Amino acid sequence: MGIEILIVDDEVEFAEAFAERLRLRGFTAGIAHSGEQALRIVDEGAVKIMVLDLKMPGMDGLEVLRRVKRSHPLVEVIILSGHGSEVDEAYGRQLGAFSYLRKPADIGDVLEAVKRAEKLLASQA
Amino acid sequence: MKEKHYYSALARNMTLIIILVSVTPLILIAGMIGYYFETSYQEKVMEHLKEVVEKHQQHINSFLDEKLSCIKVLADSYPFDELNDDAFLANKLVILQNAYMDAFVDLGVVNSAGVQIAYAGSLKLLRADYSKAEWFHEAIKRDYYLSDVFLGLRSTPHCIVSVKKRRGDSEWLLRATIDFVAFNSLVEGIHIGETGSAVIINSAGELQTRPRNEPAPSIIEMSSRTLWGRRGGKNAEPVASSVEEIKRMSSGSNIVSGIIKAQNKNIIFILMPLKSGEWTLAYQQDQDDAFSKMNHARTIVVSIFVFGCLTIMLAALFVSRKLVSQIEKADVEKEIMNEQVIEAGKLALIGELAAGIAHEINNPVAIMVEEAGWLEDLLEEGDFEESQNLEEFKRSLKQISVQGVRCKEITHKLLSFARKTDPVHRDIQVNEIIEEILSICEQHSRFNNIRIQTDLDEHLPQISASPTEMQQVFMNLINNAIDAMGSGGGLLEIRSGVDGHNVVVDISDTGHGIPKGVMTRMFDPFFTTKPVGKGTGLGLSICYGIIRKLGGNLTVDSTVGLGTTFHVHIPIHAETA
Q1: Which of B99, B164, B229, B373 is least surrounded by CB atoms within 10 angstroms?
Q2: Which residues of chain A have a CB within 8 Å of the CB of B408?
Q3: Is B381 an 8 Å CB contact of chain A?
Q4: What is the CATH number of domain B7-183?
């Protein structure tokens, strides 16, 4: 079973709870706790949508975004960060982020973003 | 703020230094020039006086010598027999009187017994007996004799010139009387200034001429006791010891001069010998008179000096006062600037701190919300449908989510505020700043029962300013308004709008108002009505400074007991206007 949505966050509890809630809603969700891990999983080829935290130890979210967009331009990235500033948001969008949400975000908002991304992916396919 | 006495001490020191530096050279120059000028002027005057007196001395000496030689010639030219004839004598007297302008009064021949045996003149002195006369005793001892002035037989002042001749065993004298008036006029001719006059004094201290001004007794005394080389000494020996008032004196072989104090004034005196030292020609003049021109010059110089010193002092006082007040002003301005920088720094620091805290809080809150959401999801699955508290669970979880969102709002406001701590000018929307600050002050005002009402113009143009400074301005004004209402509550109204070329923001409170006395000073730095430690007194002055710097204005309307309204006018940014 491939991972359709990859949640990248160094906060393990958050990532797990969030992934669980997505699964409950019928999505295939995976977790990565660091930028490096996220890139490895993306390389495996099953990820369609990535929910990305910006501030992480080691490789930070924007760097992950840049690399993913370079190696897998078709993967849509939704930024979900508690640290986001307008500058970060603008920069993220410039790098090709699909959407930008602030933590703590309502699950509904996230789902809506995910659905829009899926629709976009479907139209591209 | 520095103490008042620091500035007064500074002003005092500056004044003193300026005065010292300017007056000292003035005093030195004036003193030096004055001293040298006075000394040389006095020397010059003395020289001049000496010269005049010396000329008269020579004149008098030659007058006397001339008279003596006339008689000598007469005595040498004619034998006793011819002279011993009244008619012959009368003839000679006329010749002499014609030649010498009546200087000779009479002529006479006196024998060794002192009896005048021949006489020519206006008085009947034939056969007059001079054997008791003092002059006769002196005259009979010498070949030539010139007597002191005396009254004699005729009871008018005169002096006698005599020549001694020998005939066989006996001696006889040819004598002539010299008119006192003629003689006196020689001395009276010495007349300089107001008080300068001369007199001839004999060794007994008797006046030989009629003085124009009464000579000082000490000069007479000194004249009579001066020994003109009579005791073999080369220099004249003035008697200084007896005259204590002598201030200055110099003596040469033929002259004694100096200044003495007598009759409460300084008197210049010059003494010169006459008649080989038997008489003294004494000249005296008041110092003030002799040096009157110098004294006049000194008065002028002293007045200029005093006036100059006064001017310097006044100028020093004025300049240093002015300078110090400028320094004081500059110090205050610096202080405000410092305070402003510190305030801005504080705000920036608070912003950073808030941003850090907001970041850190967001993550745990996100987890909490997520976990609550997960629980909600689980409830939706229907595992707990039988539980009677299902609704209660749902409500509680919902509440956790709602409060999580509230946390998010707060942290994002803080973050947004923190991001604007930037001193660089850029285009800003005043409404945003006001809303941000209100969101921060909301809690504080709610505690104090203060309602906040805003009426912000949605189409407000942007202004160009530093966001930090604008935060400072509105933070100060809004906090002041909240403080003014205290814990009693009230209404805080904020309106924004456009008036001409200005964005106008009115901040009204229903607080205690500002008394008239405070109104005039409220923008002064360090002026505060808050208790010690609560306010720096800089808030409003900083606001005022910032707004004035932007070309705007800060005004205030206030009614005691009803409330206060601050009006902030800020020019609309030229490009967006």
Answers
A1: B99
A2: 102-104
A3: yes
A4: 3.30.450.20
Question: pLDDT-based confidence at B323, cuts 50/70/90?
Answer: very high
> Could you say which DSSP state residue B227 is in?
B
Q: Where are the domain boundaries for CATH 3.30.565.10 in chain B?
A: 423-577
Contacts of A85 in chain B (CB under 8 A): 415, 419
Q: How far is A19 from chain B (nearest CA, A)?
A: 10
Q: Output Rg (C-alpha) for chain B, integer angstroms.
A: 58
DSSP string spanning B25-70?
HHHHHHHHHHHHHHHHHHHHHHHHHHHHHHHHHHHHHHHHHHHHHH
**What's the DSSP call for residue B190?**
-
Does the distance separating the beta carbons of B415 and A82 come in below 8 Å? no
ipTM of the complex: 0.82
Q: Which of B363, B400, B412, B419 to mutate to test the interface with A (most CBs of A within 10 A)?
A: B363
The string of pLDDT tens digits covering residues B115-124 is 888 888 888 8
Q: Collapsing DSSP states into helix, strand and coil, what is residue B175?
A: strand
Q: Considering only the top CATH level, what class is B327-421?
A: mainly alpha
Token representation of residue B184: 């006196």
The pLDDT value recorded for residue B16 is 92
CATH of region B190-290, choose from 1.10.10, 1.10.150, 3.30.420, 3.30.450: 3.30.450
pTM: 0.52
Residue linked to tokens 């990535």:
A50
Condensed to tens digits (0 to 9), the pLDDT of residues B486-517 reads 777 888 899 999 888 889 999 999 888 888 88
What is the domain class of B423-577 according to CATH? alpha beta
